[in-house]
Amino acid sequence: MGKSTLVNALVGREVQRTGEVRDDDQRGRHTTVASELIELPDGGWLLDTPGLRAVTLWTSGRGIERAFKDVFDIGDNCRFRDCKHLDEPGCAVNEAIEAGTLPRIRLESMRRLVAEELALEEEQREREKAFDKRGARRRPGQRGG
Predict the structure, then answer these.
(1) CA 141 remoteness from chain centre
(2) pLDDT score at 27
(3) Looking at beta carbons, which pairs linking 25-32 to residues 24 or more positions away fall under 8 Å?
(4) What is the distance between the alpha carbons of residues 90 and 79, in angstroms, rounded to a whole number?
(5) Strand pairing partners for 48?
(6) Sign of the alpha-carbon torsion through 74, 117, 48, 35
(7) Where do the structural domains in the chain lie, given as residue ranges?
(8) What pTM was computed for the model?
(9) How many angstroms separate the Cα of 22 from the Cα of each of 5, 26, 43?
(10) Which of 1, 25, 68, 112 is the most exposed place for a label (fewest CB within 10 A)?
(11) Predicted confidence (pLDDT) at residue 59 exceeds the cutoff of 70
(12) Residue bearing the bigger pLDDT, 125 or 145
């Protein structure tokens, strides 16, 4: 789903032009050509801007813990402190899911966001490493260009 499609879903009607998604890579092409401020029906405003390739996860330290406080609170009761909530014995999170007091989708959503956050951190490390290597090739006092 592209940004303009997301904008249309939030507004509840088509306010932004959208394009087809390619079959080979499931991506669309940029259709937003200028920034536009759009009023949302339930209050608030949304700025749709061209040029963004993707909207990715942004966290500020403990964002996932705050967003999934219910899962983390239940997880405090797991038998093992390093419980991954997979199939460990004494996993309070899985027990809560089985008992119907925690929706399974909460744990699945949290896992997806944690995986995305880890992937973004790894991507950032790789970019920094590549940048450091480019800078290390120059001798002290040597100018770039």
Answers:
(1) 41
(2) 57
(3) 28/2, 31/2, 31/4, 32/3, 32/4
(4) 5
(5) 36
(6) positive
(7) 3-48, 63-136
(8) 0.52
(9) 15, 5, 34
(10) 25
(11) no
(12) 125
Do 79 and 89 meet the contact criterion of CB atoms below 8 Å apart? yes
DSSP states of 94-135: HHHHHHTSS-HHHHHHHHHHHHHHHHHHHHHHHHHHHHHHHH
**Three-class SS state of 68:** coil
Residue with tokens 């997301």: 6
**Topology of domain 63-136, CATH:** Ribonucleotide Reductase Protein R1; domain 1 (1.10.40)
Q: Measure the CA–CA gap between 60 and 4, rounded to whole angstroms.
A: 26
- Structure tokens belonging to residue 25: 């890579």
The one-character DSSP state at 142 is P
Instruction: Find all residues with CB under 8 Å of 110, minimum gap 6, and list them.
Output: 64, 67, 68, 71
Q: Structure tokens of 30?
A: 């940029």
